[in-house]
Amino acid sequence: MSYPTPSLASLQSTLLHSFHLPVRPTFLRSLLTALQNTSRPPHGAALLQTLKFRILSSDITQSLEPRSNLCLPSISSETKSITLGFDGIIVQALDIKDLTQSLGDTMEAIEMGERGEKMKGREVVRITAEEAEAEQGTQAGSGVGSAATADRKNGVHKLLLQDSAGTRVWGLEVKTVEKLGGINIGGKLLLRGCTVARGVVLLTPETVTVLGGREEAMSKSWKEERKEVLRGEIEALRGGR
To answer: pTM above the 0.85 mark?
Structure first.
C-alpha cells in the first residue's frame, strides 16, 4: 500500500514549528528522494522522526537555512552583555571540554582506551574492541576519562558552538544542563534567551535544550586530532612555567 507524501512546504513548516529546524528545501528534497527509494519508505509520524534524525546527524551549515532571526548575532570578546532571541537558535558542537578534568587525566584516559583498558573503580580492566571504541568516544566527546564517566554530569563544560551561517562562539555551562556532558561532536543544541557575557554564551537548563545527533565526519576528525591538540596544550603549559 502506498501513502501520499506530504508537500515539501508542509514538511518544512512542520519541521520548523515542531522541532525548530528551518531545513533548506534542497536538502529536504534530497532526503525525501533517498527515503522514497528504500524498500519500505516511512510515512506519517515515522517520516517526520526519520527526517528529524537525518537533520540532527547532518552539518547544519549545509542542511539548515541561515535565517537572521534563527542565527547567532555578531559576538566578540568586546560583547559585554546581550540576550539571544527566544525564537530558537540551532547550533552544533564542534568541540567540548570538561573544565573540571586536568589535561593530563584526559590524555591518560584516551591512551587507556587506545590500549583497550579502562578503570573499574581502582582497578584497570581489559575491554573488547567494541567497548574500546565506545570508551574513546566518551573520553574524546566529553573530555573525561572512564573513571569519571559516572560523574561527568557534575562537570563544567565549555563548548565551541556553530550556527547554520557558520558563525562560531564559545559556550560555558554555568548551571548543569542535562545531557550536555555526553553530547557528541556535531550534536545539536537549541538556544533560547541565553545571556552572552564578554563574548561567551552562558548555558543554563532554562535556556538550552540538548537535541542530540552526531555528524560522523566531524566526530571522526575531532577524535583523530584530539590527542595532538591535548599534547600541544600540555606542552604550552609546561613551557609557561
So the answer is: no
